[in-house]
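Re: duplicated header lines in exported structure tokens

Our pipeline writes sequence and tokens for each protein into one text file. With two proteins the header for the second block appears twice in some exports. Here is an export where it did not happen, for reference. First protein block:
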Amino acid sequence: IREQVGRYRARTLICVLAIVLTLIPHLSGWAVRPTGSTYLARGPIAFSDTMVYYAAMIEAAHGHVFTSNPFTSEPQQARLIQPIWLLGGWLMRGLHLSVESTYQLYRVLVMVGYLVFLWWVTKPVSETVQGRTWVFFLLCFASGFGWIEYIFFHHGTSFDLWVSESNTFLSMLHSPLFMVSQLLFVVLLTTWWRILTQTIYNWWWLPGIVALAIIHPYDVFTVSLFSGLLSVWFLVQTCLPSLHWPFLVADTVCPVCFTIY
């Protein structure tokens, strides 16, 4: 029982640490704001996008189902369906909080479910709970190769340093939208791999793609690209086994070189 409690405690501490770390920048920003000013609670990445999210939540809080983007060069009509911010607007209206406070509360609530999902992802990776715990820790806090560029070339333009979908921690820090889209992204890719390897079609594959297109449209192109790469990988393994290792090396080296570039 003590061993089980210890393992449960380790997972809980990782979750609490992740939540606290994402709150520190916003709590410190709110604490040092000048007198009479309002802290907008925007993250360090894609901060201009956050204002678009705020606008959609405010429109939803006012009773609108269709939203618009008021930060464009031309006026728009409310024709956008944004389920994530629709729920956020309803939460804002129900709790009578400011849009900034509601956004952060909403982010933490989604983050809890997202962390549970990350733990579920570790299940096929390791047979031991200790192994799953380490993988879970890496999933929460690890990054890509952007640190190489940042240290040696003094740039911060690598995808894993500013595109939050490529970094789980940045997704948790930034937005409920990116967490949900990343969740769908992983589920769709794993499902596609099972379709290829088990030749069993999952009926909700297409609805999942449609849901991703509604929530975060450009991720559809990304998941389609990776699904294609998985298909090529499967064909190489089954039809051209002699090319298995060269393809593995190329599939590993090319993303690293591209990331550094």
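Second protein block, exported in the same file:
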Amino acid sequence: SEDVEENVMTTHIAENNDIAVSEPEEVVDGKIADFNLFTIERRVEKNELGTEKVVIGNISIGVTELIPRTGCTHVSFEIASYLNDKNCDVSVVMFDTNSFNSTADYLGCSITNKSFKYSGIEFYCSEGYWEAQGQHKITIMDFGVQNNENISLYEKCQIKLMMCDFSYWNAEVIERYITSDNIAYSKDVFYLFNLMGNERFQNKIKEPLTRYGFKVFRLEQSSSCMNSCAFNDNVYSFILGEIVAEKKEAPVKKGFFGKRT
């Protein structure tokens, strides 16, 4: 199977890295269906400095997308299930009210005090945001499509995930995001490419973007959002490894006089 660790890119690259840039191979309807490497190169030169990371509550994981139905909610649930299986105290905040109500109805759960519980995980609507932050160690923020109303919260999340669709007709959307001068934290984001073949991912995503310090992963289809496949679990393990490791550390017991027992 593919080595997930090889999909993680270094966060810093040499300023004078000699990179051969070739012409894009695919053009669809007159538009480039591959990343514009020239544009990315200019973008990197303007943004080599990192940005301050702000933690909301304890640990906040922001999941968003630029195009509807890219898998934002599905992956939010998968990550919650993964962390729950690791005995982490995790909750999910769903910022789309219709999706929150529909999910509760589909799962047969009753909504009480802005939330419902399923399979050991507490799910909150957007109005229950502060309750989720105050009562759980880890909060997964299912923002859905990124907009002006939720972007400020997303920017404050300690861990930022971006669901990506690299279909030929949508490739330009993620390219504009990565190369935008307004996204100072673009290298802090984990870009998850959903339901994409490995060969195309390696050639069109990993190979060009790893040169510039972007963190990219590929996800595979799972049977259920509450039971992700082993491949996706390996991806989540790599991204969230420190969280799970921290949870596994047992506290040292001490006696009345401060001595270990």
